[in-house]
Amino acid sequence: MPVSVTRWGALCTALALGCIGDLDPKELVVSPRILDIVADPPEIAPGGTVRLRAVVGGARGPVTYRWVACTASDPFSGIGGFGTGTGEQGCTGDAGVRIPLGSGPEATLTIPRESVDLEAIVSRLGERAPRALVERFIRDVGVIVGIGLTVEADGRTLNGYKRVVVSLNPRPNANPPPPRVRVNTRWVSVPSTGGEVCVPEEGEAIRVPRARNVTLTPDPAEAWLERYTVLTTVGAFEERSEQAFYSWYATNGELGRGLTRSPTRDNVWLPSDHPGAQSLWFFIRDGHGGTSGCRLDLTVE
User: Fold this and answer.
1) In order of start, what are the domains of the chain with their CATH numbers?
2) How confident is the model at residue 74 (pLDDT cuts 50, 70, 90)?
3) Sheet of strand 49-57: strand arrangement
4) 297: part of which helix (H) or strand (E)?
5) What pTM did the predictor assign?
6) Which of 165, 169, 214, 236 is 20 to 30 A (C-alpha) from 46?
7) Which backbone phi and psi does 234 adopt, to 5 degrees?
8) Of 216, 234, 232, 128, nearest in space to 180 by CA
């Protein structure tokens, strides 16, 4: 038994655009799954370009991708009527602006320099928000551009959503560093040359015995966590701190938990009784749109 582990056009003048959607929370990857959508960087200034990358696991055959940038039908609807609209409608085709971005595992989105037009936003909002509030919102909180992804694999259609922030923030949000995880007694990480695969920092490839617990311990160093500003439902700006969340996936066996966080970051994986090649995925999310991850290929014997 495992150890129990208790627009352009409309897009250019909208103040809050985007899509949201939960990725499948199941930890076992036995069929096609969108495990993550990485935006690098997750927050950019007008005129900047963001690289989008999909992490898909469990597919046995070819995978096709369709990317779109999307907006909400009314990005100003919601709590307080200011900056709370989501872009899921735009991604699903109900309403809003949809801009095709490409059909590969990666895509790029360049935000026009004129996309955040303060005067146009102030005029559109009118009495709904004072000018000073709008100015600070654009600087410290930012405009949300939604990214929609449709994946076709093994006869299945999968949908994912990602938010990219466009702001004038002098300290824009960055992604967490790539994961570094101790697998039993050996550390694995992404090599200095980069990539999406974790490898042992020393020695040969990881091999683990079947049907025996494997401890998974992320590096506890979290100095990379940042502070950020939100606009609350009562119209006040509030400073908050990011928190590190660790997501775990495996191709077989059983994980103690699918999500961990400080002070209990560690996890346990129990491989099945069948030997062979398997994979684990590790992701770090900062709770503020930033994410990083890698895949570890190992052998169960």
Assistant:
1) 7-170 (2.60.40.10), 173-301 (2.60.40.10)
2) low
3) 33-40, 49-57, 106-110
4) strand 291-300
5) 0.84
6) 236
7) -100, 10
8) 216
